[in-house]
Each structure stands twice: as structure tokens, then as C-alpha cells.
Design a protein that fits this description.
- It is built from three helices and 19 strands.
- It is mainly beta and 318 residues long.
- The chain has a single domain, classed as 4-Layer Sandwich (Deoxyribonuclease I, Chain A), CATH 3.60.10.10.
- The strands form four sheets. The chain has a seven-stranded mixed β-sheet with strand order 15-16-14-13-12-9-19, covered by helices on one side.
- Strand 3, helix 1 and strand 4 form a beta-alpha-beta unit.
- It is globular.
Length: 318
């Protein structure tokens, strides 16, 4: 599900002369205007209302060779998925660093209503050759990022993003969830210094800009994932410039209260790098403790919009 096209250069003043690679657009989306977000109610999830739905993001740390060999195996990670679904009533999950065969096995074990969309990470060399990253361990497949939902996923698309010229390519994966009247986008943003030929180039501002531009096309969208960036809070954050202004204004983050950008940590090192944003009314936010990853799952409950997403297009299921 990988297509390519040239991306326009953004932030040229910071990266003059850079060659960019973009993931290609799979399908077009209908344009609608974003509505003003509501404030979050409370620090936890609290009681759910009939029109509430919970969405989670979780970096599963399932790629053992990426310092994940001590975060549990596939059984541990499946148990955490099942707990999120059972304890927090999560119906849609945005997953990063998951192995394709682990994902397929989890969906089958969860039940016939569960569907997935998966995109592999790729290593790109100096000649431009792409090689999908393989998970270590027999029969675990490729490493990548994915969507997992308790209903069909439709209008699946890869959002064009600038990526390192040489190095690891991550990306942004979006789909509609008509049963929940939502659209979701899962982003795994590049680490700083991720270009092996140009370690001084930083791609996070371009990628976050592309993500929130994609969110702005439909006011029923929830975006999230592993952004590999702390919140733009305080004077000591040298990465605050990577954030587009609409992130905390037009959209609100799961843990956001008022105008504050501070939030609870989602990584075991004490930082917040995992996010969920939406313009929909938020009714709860929860950071879930787990021993099955170095990231804690983040769960956001929102009020479903009154209308379902626009006319279905490309549909994908496991």
C-alpha cells in the first residue's frame, strides 16, 4: 500500500536544499470545516454516555530489535489490547511498532467484527531503495503502524509526508470508521536526526503540519500516535517550533485543560510523546499503566458526531 509522489518543500529556511520523499495519497477526502472543540471533562474516563466512543493510541514496542526485547512478548501485548477493549471500552486503536502477524493474530482472537489496516516501516538507502523492516522472531512478519477497529475501516489513505532521504520511513495512515461516525489518523513521526545523510534536518514540523492538514478536511477526525516530541509547553522546550498552531487551538489534545499544553507522561522516561487530538467534544482522557511496552496507552472518549462520515470509498479489512 505504498505509493510515492514529490512533496513540496516546507520550512525551507531551516532545510535549504533538502531532497524530500513523500508517501503518496491513496484516495481523496471530502473537505469540511472544523468546529470549535469542547473542553475535556475530568482527568479520567468517567461514566460513558450512549453517544460516547473511546479511541486509544499505543506504541506497542513490538519490534524486539528496537530495544523492546524486555517489554514482553506477543501474548503480553495482546493481553494489554484486550484489557483496553474490556476495561476502557475502546473501539478504535492507533498502533505503532506492531508486527504484522501479531496484529492479524490479535484481530482474529478478538472476534470477527475486528478489522485492521497495516503499513510497514521502510529503510531507504542512498540509492532510494526501500526495504520493509522485518520483526525479529519466527513468523511475526513486518514491523509497522496500524489501525485496529471493532468495525469496518473505509476510505483508507496514506497522507503524503516528507521523510528522510536515507533512513527509516514512518508515516501517517487514515481511515473512516462509519460505525462510529469517525475518521481517524495514526501518525508515527520521525525522530530528530533521523536522516542518516543529513542528521541536522528535522522533519517533525513538516510531518505534523501534514497530519493536522489532513485532520482539517473533516471535523469528525481524531488524530494521534507517537509524535516523538514533547508538548510545546514552557520556555525550555527547544522543539516547540515543530508544532503547528492549530494543534492546541482548532484541535484539543486528550489531556488538554484550557490553554495549558502540559500533560501526563506517556513514556517510561517521564515524558509525553503520545497524543490524541480532535475537534469533537471530549468527555474523558486516561493514561493506562502497562508493563507490556515502554509507552503507556492513551485513551480518549469523545461524543460521536451526529452524522456518519461521507460516502464510503476504498474499504479494507483483514
Amino acid at each position: 500500500m505504498q505509493m510515492h509522489k514529490e512533496a513540496g518543500w516546507r520550512s525551507i529556511r531551516r532545510r535549504f536544499g533538502r531532497t524530500a520523499t513523500a508517501l503518496g495519497l491513496m484516495t481523496a477526502v471530502a473537505c469540511t470545516s472544523a468546529q470549535a472543540p469542547a473542553s475535556v471533562a475530568g482527568a479520567g474516563l468517567g461514566p460513558a454516555k450512549p453517544d460516547d466512543v473511546s479511541v486509544a493510541t499505543w506504541n506497542m514496542c513490538g519490534v524486539q530489535q528496537w530495544n523492546c526485547d524486555r517489554t514482553g512478548g506477543p501474548k503480553d501485548k495482546f493481553q494489554q489490547l484486550r484489557n483496553l477493549i474490556g476495561n476502557s471500552d475502546v473501539r478504535v486503536l492507533l498502533l505503532q511498532e506492531v508486527c504484522s502477524e501479531d496484529l492479524s493474530s490479535s484481530a482474529l482472537r478478538l472476534g470477527p467484527e475486528w478489522n485492521t489496516v497495516f503499513e510497514p516501516y521502510a529503510e531507504v538507502d542512498s540509492a532510494g531503495t526501500r526495504t520493509a523492516v522485518q520483526c525479529t522472531g519466527q513468523g511475526r512478519g513486518q514491523a509497522g503502524f496500524a489501525l485496529l477497529a471493532a468495525s469496518r475501516l473505509e476510505d483508507v489513505e496514506l497522507i503524503p509526508t516528507e521523510q528522510p532521504t536515507v533512513g527509516l520511513h514512518r508515516g501517517i495512515l487514515c481511515a473512516r470508521v462509519p460505525a462510529q461516525r469517525l475518521r481517524v489518523c495514526n501518525a508515527h513521526i520521525s525522530l530528530r536526526e533521523s536522516d542518516n545523510e543529513h542528521p541536522d534536518w528535522d522533519f517533525r514540523d513538516d510531518q505534523l503540519g501534514s497530519l493536522f492538514a489532513a485532520a482539517s478536511t473533516d471535523d469528525r477526525t481524531i488524530v494521534g500516535g507517537d509524535f516523538n516530541s514533547p508538548p510545546p509547553a514552557g520556555d525550555r522546550n527547544p522543539s516547540a517550533w515543530v508544532w503547528p498552531s492549530e494543534a492546541y487551538t482548532t484541535f484539543r489534545e486528550c489531556d488538554q485543560k484550557g490553554s495549558s499544553r502540559k500533560a501526563r507522561a506517556t513514556h517510561t522516561d517521564g515524558t509525553k510523546i503520545d497524543y490524541l487530538f480532535t475537534a469533537l467534544p471530549r468527555t474523558g482522557c486516561e493514561v493506562v499503566d502497562t508493563k507490556a511496552s515502554d509507552h503507556r496507552p492513551l485513551v480518549m472518549r469523545v461524543t460521536r458526531p451526529s452524522e456518519a462520515p461521507a460516502t464510503p470509498g476504498v474499504s479494507t479489512s483483514r
